[in-house]
Design a protein that fits this description.
Elements lengths: L1 H10 L4 H13 L3 H8 L10 H14 L3 H13 L5 H13 L3 H14 L4 H13 L3 H14 L14 H4 L14
Helix pairs in contact: 1-2, 2-3, 3-4, 4-5, 5-6, 6-7, 6-8, 7-8, 8-9
Amino acid sequence: AEAVCSDFLTRVPSAYSVRTSLAELLVGDDRVTDAIAAFGDLQQVPADYRPVANFLLGMAAAEDADWRTALARLTEARAAGYAPTVLLLRLANVLVRMGSSHDAEAILRGLIKTEPNNPLPYQQLADAFRATGRAAEAQTILDHVHKKFPKPHFASVRPQAPADEFAPAAGRSRPGESAR
């Protein structure tokens, strides 16, 4: 898809709908810098595509840990009606980092409601709960995610195990191993 979009843009450089698709694709691959380059001069975009430019600038600011700028740009893009899942996830992350966990929770619960088969909002909600000292609620979410999205679908989200399960004390064996 990236190659097709890039090839098309060499022939029709003013195709901002294709630039938007390419930028979203690259952001999805955690390539924000490449997305900005593909989108072009963010200060010169047509008015209809300004929300996408704000999204990209917000994503770049978040990568640089410039939370205030990220919040402003992402909020502006969302207010203009541009709100892909990746924007909402990043906006929730920025809100948690700025201490607005209730706002982040509302965004994430909204995503869970509209995208119940996407494990990422669940994971991020658990992370937000952990960041605000709500470990039991985080664990409940992780347990739910682990049941709803079994391995191959989302193997990286697992209920947290006690620390000693992964680092047994000297002389103790791990479960299923024999003591030496």
